[in-house]
Amino acid sequence: MRIAIIGGGIAGLAAAYELEKTRQSGVPVEYELYEAGPRLGGVIASMVVNGPGAEQTVLELGPDSFLTEKPAAIELCRELGLGDDLVRSNDAERKTFILVGKRLVALPDGLMFLVPTKLLPTALTGLFSWPTKIRMGLELLHPPRPHVGDESVAALVKRHYGQEAVDRLADPLLSGIYGGDSAQLSAQAVLPRMVELETKYGSLTKGMLAGMRAAAQAKAAASSSGKVAEPRPLFTTLRNGLQQLVDAVVGRLDASRLHLQSPIGGLSRVGAQWALVGAEGVAEGLAEDLFDAVIVATPAWSAANLLGGVDSALAEELGGIPYSSSITVNLMYDGAEFDALPPGFGFLVPVVEGRAMLACTFLHRKFPGRTAVGKTVLRAFLGGARNAGLLAESDEVLTRIVRKELFEILQISVAPERVEITRWPRAMAQYAVGHKDRQIRIQNRLSELPGLRLAGNAYDGIGISDCIRLGRGAARELVAENTSTRA
User: Fold this and answer.
1) Other CB atoms within 10 Å distance of the CB of residue 284
2) Cα gap 394→401, rounded to integer Å
3) Which of 11, 270, 279, 387 is an S-S bond match for 455, by CB 3.0 to 4.6 Å?
4) 90-126 pLDDT, tens per residue?
5) What residue ranges define each of the domains in the chain, with the CATH number in brackets?
6) Per DSSP, what are the bridge partners of residue 235?
7) First to last CA, the chain
8) How many Å apart are CA 2 and CA 177, to the nearest integer?
9) In degrees, to the nearest 5, what angle opens at C-alpha 109 toward C-alphas 106 and 115?
């Protein structure tokens, strides 16, 4: 069986890794991976500066970590022998601020993502006005609401807690995760648990409290039986940057099967097989090649272009998935100047504040041991669904914008020792209202196209673990289908 993988991001690499394992186990499967760009790893990219050991500083140009509760990334790291290099987030000092005017206001204690669960901290916070605080208290009286279809996250949050909660909580939190607009993002796809809580309990706060009581009871039962698990950190990363994961996966693959700077111009069906046509002037020798199956691990808008000649309805669905762009700005300073930084991991910036920055992470605090002694690393995020025009600005302009806002918010006037700016155009899929229904339609079209799989952040989770799970799952499904067909 021959399988082509189009796209060398982490989803495509995970698929190739699974197929390489299968091949080495004796199963007759071959694969070829085609990446349009000059490097593998997609948006995962790290830079290590300032020497080895305690003197080194890790700068993440793309994502800086993965969610610990989603196991696929950690499982892959351990398979690759990277278990000892896994680094836990410093959750004992985890604290996040929201910018209100020129003040940084800490998220109140007891806030479970968007849901307040403690009365006193909610009443005392400066994040919300008194009318919003009163509304949050009265939210406990909401009756159960039958599910009546998808809606935006903003609509869900506004119905329960009011517009101020959308502006100061939902928008900045989701902009930090998705680079998106809460008025466009799907509640079903982004906050499925809250949709379920509303259906069962009516009040999100009441539902969250019930879940917390159940978790406490389960913990007590586990404790009485001596099976208490160590608390898991919220985030996990790698000691030398997430690039370690990419390099380790690539190191397990057959280099002769990895084709960089080899964009694919299109796909077509040739009988029961798939033809890959190379883009003009590149991928010498590819001209046209045949495979038994294909894993398309590119962004959905690229997959739409590849599949337009195969299934126009599928291509239209893929092309309809919106994307946002982002910019990361790493600023490395002499840490001696930063004793007055507020505690915690950093801050989020609501859109209503009218600033270019979406968020700023104090990276030297989030993951201990990855920043050289005496150094400070601030990582600013710009762009997002509402401000993609910033991608066209020069590095000098972007640096000036970020330094100006950092001065106004944190009073940082000293020049950074190093600035690294990375642009990620159309990199983050947006799960817009109706995303779940779109996914059903996509799966229905795929069921009519044997040997075709899609993987990446456009489908069932945007994180690194999600992409790994989808890439490896696609590879396993194709091998299993081929085995059952031959049997």
Assistant:
1) 8
2) 11
3) 11
4) 888 888 999 998 899 999 998 888 898 988 999 999 9
5) 2-39+245-321+432-486 (3.50.50.60), 46-93+323-429 (3.90.660.20), 110-224 (1.10.3110.10)
6) 67
7) 14
8) 37
9) 100
Evaluate whether 334 touches 376 at the Cβ level (below 8 Å): yes
pLDDT tens for 388-440 read 889 999 999 999 999 999 999 999 989 999 999 999 999 999 999 999 999 99
Tokens of 338: 């930063």
Dihedrals φ, ψ of 216, to 5°?
-65, -40
Cα–Cα nearest to 242, from 127, 80, 362: 80
Per-residue pLDDT tens for 3-40?
Answer: 999 999 999 999 999 999 999 999 999 999 999 999 99
Dig out the tokens for 194 from the structure. Answer: 């809250």
Closest by Cα among 72, 393, 376, 377 to 236? 72
Torsion angle defined by CA atoms of residues 279, 283, 284 and 290, in that order, rounded to the nearest 10 degrees: -80
Paired with 454 in beta bridges are 296
> Measured between alpha carbons, how far is 439 from 317 in angstroms, rounded to an integer?
9
Assess contact for 42 and 33: CB atoms under 8 A.
no
151-193 pLDDT, tens digit per residue, is 999 999 999 999 999 999 999 998 888 888 999 999 999 999 9
Neighbours of 428 (CB within 10 A): 22
